[in-house]
Specification:
mainly alpha, MetI-like fold, globular
Length: 284
Amino acid sequence: MSSRSEPFWLLLPGLLVLILAFFWPVGELLVTSFFTAPQAGAPPAGTRASAGLANYAKFFADSYYLGVAERTFRLSAITTFFTFLLGFPLAYIMARAGPRLRFWLIVLTVVPLMTSVVVRTFGWLVILGRGGLLSKVLEWTGLSASPIGLMHTETGIVVAMVQVLLPFMALTIMGVIAGIDPKVEEAARTMGAGFFGVMRTVIVPLSLPGIVAGSLLTFALSISSFITPTLVGGVRLPMMAGGIFSHITGSLDWNFAAAMSMLLLLATLAVIVPYAMLLKRRGA
């Protein structure tokens, strides 16, 4: 085996898994999206009628589906923003804390990932429901005169999604901040910069690769999330993943669901690829 071929053989197993687990299914979805399911009395079983772009035209012609797409992207962007606001300080504390404190902070951050997202979401159902923990706290503090609930609201979806996705943002940024030499911060302080000045001029610019990676990861997971938005938002506030699931299991319209899946993938790539290319040009 030559030295030139060694990288290829090292990449081959992962490349095969990627082809079989991602590119092949996506290709099948793409082909399926250009067909329609046979109607009763039409083509024989096992055949599909060509639809061309009919499934895509159906999506853009219906304000309901456009509203679902708009809600999905808007809530995903809001979720990513608040996850960053909470995740960046946590990541900085974990990166600069002593070994023992850092260990326990990482444990507390990672433990939720070891719990089923269904269990965590049902916990939020109890907290956000009318008469739940949040409602009781607001009543005890006098901020609300009657029981309230954030179930089946966009606010409830964002709150639950931020908690679910916070570890991905915090751990990704922490890895980058941990690689920044603390002496750089000390030098900035010696030059007269305060804490927030150091954050703005030193830590944030140097940790930009981690911020970008964490934001893209959080946004991608949020936009394709199914369980949490479905349980917290309910049928009143559907998102793209829930709409795809309902068309597959409810109306059995696999072809239109495939078209929705491809549009979701393309829209996600339209956000991620330019973002990553822009930062690559800046050397981040």
